[in-house]
């Protein structure tokens, strides 16, 4: 008995045997017939392993997607603070049903890197996951801490006035999230929270007071010393289908506006300075992630710019060489253990890949005017 494949001109024959004869007959026919298909290569499709940033972005997106149980508020970012090691801690309040999302991430079959990013989360007991501590997800420069916040979520869900006063839309790693403006809402409303979270409230309040004080000082300084827009010229170059804008000041120094970096890396041309933490993100990647110490301590700031074509805008100016180092860093990170095909032109990672690849053997210096 057999079946015939016209495309490859193969015929596969089979013959029924008892279970006891299978091993013996298999060895006999393989040695006798030496079937060609036994030596053909078998394609293996390895599942894509997400990067640490991709995984936490996925989790944040899911936690901020309303469902039938939580149509308005599913999770909340209570606040953030920076510790002595320059690590930014984000404190997230979630409902009990969504602990499964964290559990699935922490036990992914093909996500060893992701599994290792979770700490203090669980132990195996008769093949059942038992949560024994605060779920914490760690990646370079960030700690994401998840606490039970059912009472807080329900309270704000049912009190519209409080919700409109204390909540705001924000963004973390370019993911839209719902944030609490002031953690005082917890104590003012006597809302029950975990003991470990209570210990973090003073840190959140100190961080908020510091930010408010800095904002007030900056506003006062701007009122006392108004500055004129910096005169700039700019031109566009096309590199491997990527449009790159190069800017030059009156001292012939060349820069790249932060908008181009954000567009290439995050697919957003005009990030919000506050909610997207533009300055803080640049400080973290330059001070903690780039393999060179060359840019450590660089002072990032928004400056008012006036271009020769009449455009007046505010931007963070990145030195040309810094921009190259940033793109090459992201290119190296995205191509680690790279086994898949390069991203397609319709994929937003395409610009990062094309420009990063070009910068391996070239420099934007050649386009200076």
Textual characterization of the structure:
This protein is α+β, with helices and mostly antiparallel strands and 369 residues long. The chain has three domains: 2-39, no CATH class; 52-221, no CATH class; 230-367, no CATH class. It contains twelve helices and 16 strands. It has helices at residues 22-33, 52-63, 99-106, 112-117, 150-158, 160-166, 184-188, 195-224, 258-266, 278-289, 320-334, 349-359, and strands at 2-5, 10-13, 75-82, 88-94, 118-119, 122-125, 128-131, 136-139, 142-148, 167-172, 175-180, 230-239, 242-249, 254-257, 302-307, 312-319. It has a five-stranded mixed β-sheet. Strand 6 and strand 7 (128-131) form a beta hairpin. Helix 11 (320-334) crosses helix 12. The longest helix is centred in the middle third of the chain and has 30 residues, at 195-224. The mean pLDDT is 82.
User: Shape from CA axes?
Assistant: flat
**Major sheet: order of its strands?**
3-4-9-8-5
Number of domains: 3
How many strands, which pairing sense, and closed or not: the largest β-sheet?
5 strands, mixed
Q: What is the average of the pLDDT values?
A: 82
Structural class: alpha+beta
**β content, as a range?**
15-25%
| Strand segment tally | 16
Helicity level: 25-40%
H/I helix tally = 12
- Tell me the series of helices and strands, N- to C-terminal: EEHHEEHHEEEEEHHEEHHEEEHHEEHH
Q: State Rg.
A: 28 Å
Distance between the termini: 77 Å
Unreliable parts: none
Brief descriptors of the model:
five-stranded mixed beta sheet; 12 helices; 37% helix; 369 residues; flat; five-stranded mixed barrel; alpha+beta
């Amino acid at each position: 008995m057999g079946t015939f494949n016209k495309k490859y001109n193969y015929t596969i024959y089979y013959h029924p045997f008892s279970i006891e004869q299978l091993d013996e007959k298999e060895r006999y026919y393989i040695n006798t017939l030496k079937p060609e298909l036994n030596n053909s290569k078998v394609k293996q499709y390895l599942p894509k392993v997400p990067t640490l940033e991709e995984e936490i972005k996925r989790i944040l997106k899911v936690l901020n997607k309303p469902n039938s149980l939580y149509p308005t508020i599913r999770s909340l970012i209570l606040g953030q603070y920076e510790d002595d090691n320059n690590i930014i801690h984000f404190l997230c309040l979630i409902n009990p049903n969504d602990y499964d999302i964290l559990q699935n991430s922490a036990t992914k079959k093909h996500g060893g890197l992701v599994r290792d990013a979770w700490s203090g989360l669980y132990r195996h007991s008769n093949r059942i996951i038992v949560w024994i501590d605060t779920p914490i997800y760690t990646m370079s420069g960030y700690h994401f801490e998840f606490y039970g916040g059912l009472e807080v979520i329900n309270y704000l869900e049912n009190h519209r006035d409080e919700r409109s006063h204390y909540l705001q839309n924000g963004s973390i790693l370019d993911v839209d999230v719902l944030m609490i403006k002031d953690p005082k809402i917890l104590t003012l409303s006597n809302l029950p929270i975990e003991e470990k979270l209570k210990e973090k409230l003073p840190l959140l309040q100190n961080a908020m007071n510091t930010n408010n004080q800095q904002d007030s000082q900056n506003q006062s300084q701007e009122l006392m010393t108004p500055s004129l827009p910096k005169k700039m010229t700019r031109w566009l170059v096309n590199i491997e289908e990527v449009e790159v804008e190069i800017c030059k000041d009156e001292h012939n120094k060349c820069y790249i506006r932060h908008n181009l970096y954000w567009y290439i890396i995050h697919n957003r041309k005009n990030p919000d300075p506050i909610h997207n933490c533009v300055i803080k993100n640049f400080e973290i990647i330059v001070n903690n992630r780039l393999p060179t110490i060359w840019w450590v301590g660089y002072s990032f700031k928004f400056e008012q710019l006036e271009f020769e074509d009449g455009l007046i805008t505010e931007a963070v100016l990145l030195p040309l060489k810094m921009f190259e180092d940033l793109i090459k860093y992201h290119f190296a990170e995205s191509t680690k253990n790279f086994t898949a095909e390069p991203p397609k032109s319709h994929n937003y990672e395409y610009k990062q890949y094309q420009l990063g690849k070009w910068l391996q053997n070239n420099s934007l210096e050649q386009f200076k005017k």
